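[job 4471] stage=fold_predict status=RUNNING
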Amino acid sequence: MFSFSRRRMKLGRVKKVQLSESANGIKSPTRPPKQSNNSNVESAMLAVNHSDELESHCPPAPVINSSGNSENWMVLSVAGETPVPRFNHAATVVGNKMIVVGGESANGLLDDVQVLNFDTFSWTLYLSPSNLPLKIPSCKGHSLVSWGKKALLVGGRTDPANDKVSVWSFDTETECWSVMEAKGEIPVARSGHTVVRASSVLILFGGEDAKKKKLNDLHMFDLKSLTWLTLQCTGTRPSPRSNHIATLYDDKTLFVFGGASKSRTLNDLYSLDFETMVWSRIKIRGFHPSPRAGCCGILCGTKWYIAGGGSRKKRHAETFIYDILKSEWSVAITPLPSSITTNKGFSLVLVQHKDKDFLVAFGGCKKEPSNQVEVLIIEKNESSMGRRSTLSKSVGQMQFAKCSSSAGPASQMINGSSQSSVASAAKQNLASVIEHGSDDRSGALSAPTSIYQFYDTRMASLSRKNGILEVQLATALASRDTAERTLAAALKSKEEMEKKFADAMKEMELLKEKLTGIELAHEEANNLSNIVHSDNVRLEHDVAFLKAVLDDTQKELHSTRGVLAGERARAFQLQVEVFHLKQRLQSMENRAPTPRKPFNV
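[job 4471] inference complete, writing structure tokens
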């Protein structure tokens, strides 16, 4: 039906990126060499200023545990115009850039393309040549897959809606979107599905259609011929589901985990062998994750990292590892509650750099949508467990420079020491230099002049530093004033909110009273309804009785009418007989006119 590459390679493997130490490309400071006492102040001041500047662009140094992973997710400081906070978006890595498309914000669906450059650690919004944002259908619940220099957007819930799954291609070099005109057995439109890529073939599984119906069909899309094909498989296939995760191992085995069915959240694990096209459920003995949907998964070698997810009642924070070769689960780390991996609808991508792999999470929604970026450092292979990444080394050097510089005279200046204390220290250094040169008379004559010049130069430099510190102090005081004003505004807002809350409580009391009155009225209405119902029942009984009486009366009337008709017939017959008798009598009277003798008894 179709052939996959037999080479043992990682699916979705991206180019290695160069993780710089800071957004501006400044190297980490090194330990300064030993200098004379009268130059310690300036060197410590420079070390503090330089380390503070770098620290403002870099995250804290990660702690590497025994398994080679950083102890927890770390917030990554980035520059540029941060994207709109979002969730249910999609992300992928093309070269040294993370492409983020669409999603859902507090104001609705999005259609923008945001790019995070891992060389400069800065965000960029892709624009069309006419400097207008590129327009694609607003979407959420879609899939984004890299293919060379392109990012492929597959399916999702779009606005306007589509009847079939659409495939869009974004070229990162020309910064243009194009629709891939597909043919063949195009799947029905859906969201919450999964798409994995094997060479030039996309594999789509599951999801949810526009009518909220869960799906478990399997489709293949050939990127060269732009043809969809429905794949027929045997074995124990996964139940219909959406918001699950899937990955492709060694170009020949598809794994599907978790998701949500129509009635419950799932934690089952299935595999599909593309050589035999047979589904099978993987039974795990011992520990296994709790049911979850909406989690994210990244395959790194033979380990499948799974982060986040949740059920209808609870979000899960753990980051799990499924070892494909050992077929067993383990917990990598448990993030802090503030981590975005505990959010709903975040994205997760893999960035590879030298001997380290970085998992990069972005966005999601807990109470509000987020635009935060977090990273987790993992080992690429077990042989490099004890080594740290270039990024962690540079950050550790920055922290060392900061700690060492804070112990010198510069820390006293930063804490507000006066210029006179610096001058006294310089004079002490000057006296020591004069004492060392007192043995040689000629050197003693020439040394003070040069030393005083050095002292004047150093004092001028320290004066300039002091001026800079005074400016920084004024800025800090202005910031403090701003913070105090903000605090006052916050307190005022708090008072207003408390007043509004009191008014709301009063309104709630009034509503409670109204609700009590409504309940009493409802109770009275129920009583009246019961009375009316009893009256209706009684009337129904009376009506039934009257109907029965009426039926009996009608029957008697009918029988009486029959008797009356019979009597009428008999009366008419009697009248006829009387009439005949009268006629006979008259005829007899006419025939015998002579009187008859009376009859004697």
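[job 4471] summary: The chain is about 35% helix and 25% strand.
[job 4471] exit 0
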